[in-house]
Amino acid sequence: MLYKNIIIESDNGIVTITINRPEALNALNREVLSELDHYFFNEAIAAEIAGIIITGSGERAFVAGADIKEFLSLDQEKAEAMGRKVHRLFSKIEQFRKPVIAAINGFALGGGCELAMACHMRIAGSKARFGQPEVNLGILPGYGGTQRLVQLIGKGKALEMMLTAEMIGAEEARSLGLVNHVVEAGQEINKAKEIIMNISTKSPLAVGEVISTVNAFFDKTKNGFEEEIKAFGRLSVTADFREGASAFVQKRKAEWKGR
Ligand code: COA
Predict the structure, then answer these.
(1) Could you identify the atom of ligand 1 that is nearest to the CA of residue 142?
(2) Is 86 a pocket residue for ligand 1 (Cβ < 6 Å)?
(3) Could you read off the pLDDT of 197-255 as tens digits, one per residue?
């Protein structure tokens, strides 16, 4: 697919997706969402990728939210359909079996904060700003924000952010657990790459199982403990587990086969 609103670059197995609508502070319009959807459902193959970084173009914004101009044409049916489609995409990102990291270079508001929260980790530049300002518009965070913000920072602070619509800075976001690291502005992608490179030295099968088992904690249809026991069993019979344990005993670096 020819992407017009996102830029996809690959370097050493690390894919960087840049949302590229700087004139609208990278707001998520239908085209951006369908391009992301196409990439994650048709092109992103976890086994061939070390990790994915999602960032925004320019210096001002990661993503300043869903595209408010498009909101004006919504009705109940269209809004629900749109919510469902974006939930499906963000869940796909969350379930990706290699690390997906948001490199947040500026405003991460509304759907932007929600996209960042669907990623496995968040790296913020020192000027990044976070918020869920939907109540200012008479709507609520509809792309998973009411659930993932609570998961990450707890109910009290999540409600404060969503009800007051006030923005918080990078350091506060870190102290709340919303972001993993704060770095000098411009260094977000480098830090994300460093983390992905580290994870790429680990067993890819184990990495995938950790991601899906941690996600199971938040899935009300699953028993996370049971999922963990099953994943433990599955990994125990892999060539990579034998290799990892043998490499430890033989004091050498493991060579992963991915099986
Ligand atoms: N949807 C559509 N367009 C958006 C947008 C959004 N979520 N956020 C910013 N833009 C557009 C603005 O309309 C403006 O375009 P214009 O020049 O054609 O008018 C451009 O991006 C620059 O934004 P502007 O508001 O002029 O910049 P600012 O520095 O004064 O303010 C923000 C920056 C982020 C505080 C402000 O843009 C804002 O509040 N955006 C909306 C945030 C929001 O409510 N997100 C949740 C949506 S559910």
Answers:
(1) 48
(2) no
(3) 999 999 999 999 999 999 999 999 999 999 999 999 999 999 999 999 999 999 999 99
